[in-house]
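Retro notes
What went well: the complex prediction finally ran end to end.
Inputs used:
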Amino acid sequence: MAEENKVSLHGFFASPYVRRVELALKFKGIPYEYVEEDLKNKSSLLLKYNPVHKKVPVLVHNGKPIVESLVILEYIDETWKNGPQFLPEDPYKRAQIRFWASFVHQQVFQNMVLILKTDGEAQEKAVKEVSEKLSLLEEGIKSIFPEGIPIIDQENVGLLDIVIVSTFSSYKALKEVLGLELIDLEKTSPLLFSRLKALLELPVVEGALPPHEKVVGALKFMRQNALNSASV
Amino acid sequence: MGEEVKLHGTWASPFSCRVIWALKLKGIPYEYIEEDLSNKSSQLLQHNPVHKKIPVLVHGGKATCESMIILEYVEEMWPQNPLLPTHPCERADARFWIKFAEEKGPAMWTVYRTSGEEQEKAVKDTLEMLRAIEAHGLVDKKYFGGDKIGIVDIAFGQIAQWLGVIEDIVGVKLLEAHKFPRLHAWIKNFKEVPIIKENLPDRDEMMVLFKHFREMLLTSSRDS
C-alpha cells in the first residue's frame, strides 16, 4: 500500500497553477506529499519529471509524472471517481467548461499578470483587456448556468470553480500591492464575484490558500523584479 | 446522435483541417461552410461571439469553438476510431502535447507575419518547440498516437504542411532533416495516411494565398 497509489505534488506556494492542483486533491480527499520547490534552484527530480518545461506543478502518481495544471485536473477527475466530479457527463457541457476554463487561464490570467508586472501605458492596456475579458466571462457563466447558478458546496465544485478560485483569490493581495483597485470585481462581474465569495468560504479552500501577507510579499517581489528588469 | 453536424471553416486553415480530419477519421457526415474572414457570416458571429473565429462546430444547433476543444467533444460524442488513448496516464500525456502545440505553435505564425528582430525571436522560439518535440515527443514511435495517428498527430498537423509553406515564403529553413530525423519521418508518415493525404489543402494554392497575405501584412506594418 506504501508505493501503490502514492501521490506527490511538486509546487511553489505562490503559484496559482499549483493551487489548482492542491484544491483538486483536497476536494477529492486524496492524501499526498507536498514538495516545495525553490524555483531558483530546481530539484533534479523536477527537471527529470518535467524536462520540456521544467515548471511546477508536477503531480507524481505511482511514479509517473503529470504536468500542466488543467491536464492534471482532468487526470485527477478521471482517476479518482470519489468526491465531486469536476467535469459534467454531457459532452457539450464539458466543452463549455473547458472553453471557459481555458479562457480564464489564457485570456484573463495572463493579462492579470501583466497588470502586476507593468506600469503606465502597458498597465492601462492590460487593465482594459482584463475588463473586456471579465465582461465576456460574465456572459459565459450565464450561458453555462441558464437556470441560475446552483449553490456551491464541497460535493458539486467543478473544474471552472477551481480555476476561478486559483486565479482570483489573490485579487485582494493584488489591490494591496498596487495600492489601488484597478478593477472592482464586485461591480463589474457580480456573478463571478458572488461565486468566488461562496468558494472562498468553503473549508477546503480556506485551508488551501496561503496567508494573505505571504501572498502580498510574493506579489510585491514579482512586481519589483519585473519593473527593475524592464527599466534596464 | 442523428442531428446534423455543420463545420464553419476556411480551406487554408490548419485549425479548420484538424476538425475535418477528426470528423472524417470517425466517418461522421457533416456540412461544410467556407467562411470569408473579411466578411464573416452572421451565423459565425452568433455561434462564436467571444473570439469570432473559425473553426466552429455546430451539432444539433449547439456551437463548440476552439479546434482542440471541438476535437475532445467529437471524441466524446462519437467514440468510434478513438483519437485519445483509454488509460488516464496516456490521456494526460496526449493532453500535455495538445497544450504544448497550442502554446508553442503560434511562434511559427509569428515567423510568417513579421520581419527583423521580432521574426528572429520567433525563429528561435519555433526551433525550441521543434527540438522539444524531437527529443521528447516521438521517441520510439511512428506517430504521436503510437501505431496509428491520434489527437496529438492532428494537433501537430500544421508542422506537416503549413510550416513548409512558411519556410518557403520567408526563406528560412527551420526543420532540417538531419537535425530533426524523427519529425522528418513523422511528417512523411503522417501525410501518407489516406484521410490526411486526401484532406490537405493544395500546397501551390496555399503558397499563393500566404505570399499575398504576408506582403499585405508587411506593407501595412511599414505604413502604420
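What we learned: The radius of gyration of chain A is 18 Å.
What to try next: split runs per interface for comparison.
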